[in-house]
Amino acid sequence: MSGGKRSKEDGTTVMGREMGEIRGWLRGRHVTVGGVTVCVMLAVIVCVADLDLIQYMPPTGSDGPEPARSEKTDVPLSPVRPKGVHRQSTMAWRSSASTNTRLVEALVRHDVIRSEAVAAAMKAVDRSLFAPSEPYLDAPVYLGWGATISAPHMHAHALEVLVEHLHPDAKLLDVGFGSGYLAAAFAVVIGDGGAGAVYGIEHIDELAEMGRANVAAWQAKTDTPHATIHLSVGNGWDGLPGAGPFDAIHVGAAADDVPASLFDQLAIGGRLIIPVGPDGGYQELVQVDRVDADSYSETVLMGVKYVPLTQTPQAQLDRV
């Protein structure tokens, strides 16, 4: 990565008990039922918890941690972790709801959504206006043109990581706005009480047209105050230098490294989140905070799987 001095944070918080601690606690524990010592269930828990690759490496074409098999999972599973890198672990699952409100409530119950502002924004932006099928399933949905709308829990993660930077005068850049869902949700968090605005960039003409139509349909239905939304066609690797600097930048596709232009367009004190890693390989969701004019702090949040941030429309269409 380029763009000045950077430091990597190793002390990120793990939600719940680390699996290593849980395994240590379980070791040697037996339960006696009717004179019979039982330890099979504990062994099953440990074995399932060790299937990290299944939990955090979904099939090609999807993005974000793959939801697990049960909505009622109470033990957080650790992501695949290379030696020396400590990442924040989050609970993931596969859940389905009948309404947008119930979907958001499920994310709140499982502590994926932790702030009132994010819960309110996700309730105000009904996913059914942006996902072509199964809008209330906590899983990515294919949009066409080699793109997906991320799973709701990944939208929640993105909003939570950036929420403290989304004040009424904030400017946010959404690189690869796709369906337009997050652009609308970011706009709700920022609100209409200041000069804040959301800028989105997408390099597939048809996808950008769909995203604009989705946002327009939502705006026609909502009475929720929100910041102005500007959606344009262009190369996400270049950002939008004429509109910056940005208090927050969200990138919805994976790059081998953070584009230098996005470093430059991040305001001092601002925050950027981007999936980093090769297409089809190991990827991490990385948080970059700009400390001053020349310094950046980098934190690895979790292992993920995203479609690539391609530099030309044809490169993305070739993947279809």
TrEMBL record:
Family: Belongs to the methyltransferase superfamily. L-isoaspartyl/D-aspartyl protein methyltransferase family.
InterPro entries membership: PCMT (IPR000682), SAM-dependent_MTases_sf (IPR029063)
Organism expressing this protein natively: Thecamonas trahens ATCC 50062
Subcellular location: Cytoplasm
Keyword Lipid biosynthesis: no
The name this protein goes by in its record: Protein-L-isoaspartate O-methyltransferase
Gene Ontology terms, MF aspect: protein-L-isoaspartate (D-aspartate) O-methyltransferase activity
Keywords: Cytoplasm, Membrane, Methyltransferase, S-adenosyl-L-methionine, Transferase, Transmembrane, Transmembrane helix
Keyword Transferase found: yes
